[in-house]
């Protein structure tokens, strides 16, 4: 079995190659959205944050940073839906590093693995919290 692929994908036979290519493209899409370094993340740490509709298209658009659940919801939404310029604007380096052990469980595998691959400091925060 190919590394990182589930048995279900292997059983699809001829479609396996297409699935692997699609996964590689999906991962590259997320990698391209990332800033060069975490130091570029200068988003808010307090107050109420309003997300534009291209990110918050399916629900809540306003997030109170003083409320932990809303703060996590904001980070999850930005990580999944944000464009390259959105991440530095809405995510904060210190807050992301502090919170990462929780949001990493809320985002999809691709977002998590690409983010942790690009920024090993996120992985070290996860191990420290365990």
How would you describe what is shown here?
- Helix content is 55%, strand content 5%.
- It is mainly α.
- It has a two-stranded antiparallel ribbon.
- Helix 2 (16-33) packs across helix 7 (109-118) and helix 7 (109-118) packs across helix 8 (120-129).
- It is globular, with a radius of gyration of 16 Å.
- The model is unreliable at 5-10 (pLDDT under 50).
What's the quick description here?
The protein has 130 residues and is mainly alpha-helical. It has eight helices and two strands.
Which helices and strands, and how do they pair?
Blueprint: H1 7-10, H2 16-33, E1 48-50, E2 62-64, H3 68-81, H4 86-90, H5 93-99, H6 103-106, H7 109-118, H8 120-129
Antiparallel strand pairs: 1-2
Strand fraction equals under 5%
The major pleated sheet works out as: 2 strands, antiparallel
Poorly predicted regions are 5-10
Number of strands: 2
Share of helical residues: 55-70%
Average pLDDT works out at: 85
Helical segment count: 8
Shape: globular
**How large, in whole angstroms, is the Cα Rg?**
16 Å
N-to-C span: 30 Å
Structural class based on helices, strands and sheet pairing: mainly alpha
Oligomeric status of the shown chains? Answer: single chain
Strand order of the largest sheet: 1-2
- Listing every helix as H and every strand as E from the N terminus to the C terminus, the arrangement reads HHEEHHHHHH
């Amino acid at each position: 079995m190919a590394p990182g692929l589930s048995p279900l994908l292997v059983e699809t036979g001829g479609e396996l190659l297409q699935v692997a290519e699609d996964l590689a493209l999906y991962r590259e899409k997320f990698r391209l959205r990332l800033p060069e370094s975490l130091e570029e993340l200068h988003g808010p740490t307090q107050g109420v944050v309003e997300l534009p509709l291209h990110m918050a298209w399916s629900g809540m658009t306003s997030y109170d940073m003083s409320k932990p659940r809303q703060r996590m919801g904001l980070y999850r939404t930005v990580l999944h839906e944000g464009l390259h310029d959105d991440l530095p604007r809405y995510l904060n380096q210190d807050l992301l590093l502090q919170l990462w052990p929780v949001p990493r469980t809320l985002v999809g595998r691709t977002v998590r693995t690409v983010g942790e691959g690009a920024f090993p400091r996120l992985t070290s925060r996860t191990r420290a919290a365990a």
